[in-house]
Amino acid sequence: MVVTLVVLTEKGFRFSLIISQLLAKAIPVRGAKIQRLAIRKNREAFLFMKHESRRSVLTAHPSSTAPRYRYRNV
Prior knowledge:
Radius of gyration: 12 Å
Strand content: 35-45%
């Protein structure tokens, strides 16, 4: 299992892009197709990606009650 920090870089997440550039293993993601499984506003933009064979699952961090996202490799 490989865990990588993923940061969304849309207009609402510009601060996260700055943080991602400071972190060694952070990669900015643009245009990712994310399907929201739970709707909440103003949550953390930092997501951990768990690489699997055909899909990757993004889980919001640090709160365990934060919304979960599903990212599909297309």
